[in-house]
Each structure stands twice: as C-alpha cells, then as structure tokens.
Amino acid sequence: MRFNAAYRRTTKPRGFSLIELIIVVVIIGVIGAIAIPRLSRGTEGANTSKLKQDLAVLNKAVELYAAEHGGEYPSATNVENQLLLYTDKQGNTSATPTATHVFGPYLRKVPPAPAGEAPGSTVISAIDAGDVGWLYAPVRGRIYLNRVNAIDFSREDELLNNLIGDLRNPR
C-alpha cells in the first residue's frame, strides 16, 4: 500500500488519452451538424422577412399615391419618378414642391431587390429588362419582385408571377 501512495505522489498527472480526445471531437461534430443548418436557415428567414417588408413599403407607396390622385395608380412609364418625386393632381413630377406639385414623395428611395432576376437593382418597371429589380403591374397597382422560379409569399403574388412568367415564355 505504501508503495502505491508514494508512486502516485511522485508521478506527474497524465494528459487525455486518444480515446477521450476522439469522443470529444465526435461530440463536437454532432453538435455542429445539428446547429449549423439551423443557423443558416435563420438568414434565409431574415431575407424573406426583408423582402416582405420591402414589398409592403413599395405597395403602400402606390396605394398612397392612388389615394391622393383620385384612385389613379402611377403610370407604367413613370412609376419610379411618381413615387420618388413631388407630383401634381395629373401625376406630372417635379424635384421640388411647387404650388401645383403638392403630393409626395411617397418613397425616399427604392429598396434594392434582394434576389430575383437583378439582385441589388432599384429599378421599378412595368416591362421586364435585364436591370429591373421590381416589376410593376399598373392595372392592379402592385409591385412585385422580378423573379423566376422563386417562392411566392401569397396566393396573389403566385397568380401574378405565373401570369408574368407566361407572358415572358409564351407556349
């Protein structure tokens, strides 16, 4: 007995064994395999929320324009200027307010499109082109993300985007 006690006092503590290190690495790997996909889905959800918020802001601006212009939506050819500048009752634009240009601006700036055909684009147009981030449907007074094969956020968006897709690719 005395020999064992003396032996324990004189030896230095040992490090971890190879088995213990492997077990720790495996546990960390399992935790990482569970946690990393959940964290990456968080950024996808944030992007979806940002897109919904941007669409709400753009469409509220169109609705406010229509409310102040007797129910008329911005024109298909001048929608961006009519939302960003001052307008008169007929929808003519001016960079500064005047005696007749008393409405608007309805947006400070157009938010960049987060995805779609032209990510980062701030262009709003009724006609799809290479640099258009947001598509405008003047008959309905709605703005949509210019996208193909993207997830739709409501039934109305899905129907209009299918229509736009059919117009782009006639059968």
Largest sheet: 3 strands, mixed
Helix content: 40-55%
Order of helices and strands: HHHEEEEEH
Strand proportion, as a percent range, falls in 5-15%
For the biggest β-sheet, the strand order reads 3-4-5
Q: What distance lies between the first and last C-alpha atoms, to the nearest angstrom?
A: 93 Å
The coarse overall form would be rod-shaped
Number of DSSP E strands = 5
Low-confidence stretches: 149-154, 166-171
Count up the domains: 1
Structure class: mainly alpha
Plain-language structure description:
With 171 residues, the protein is mainly alpha-helical. It has one domain. The protein contains 4 helices and 5 strands; from the N terminus they run H-H-H-E-E-E-E-E-H. It has helices at residues 2-10, 18-68, 79-84, 155-168; strands spanning 86-87, 93-94, 123-125, 132-137, 142-145. Strand 1 and strand 2 form a beta hairpin. The chain is rod-shaped. The termini are far apart.
Lay out the secondary structure.
Blueprint (H helix, E strand, L loop, with lengths): L1 H9 L7 H51 L10 H6 L1 E2 L5 E2 L28 E3 L6 E6 L4 E4 L9 H14 L3
Parallel strand pairs: 3-4
Antiparallel strand pairs: 1-2, 4-5
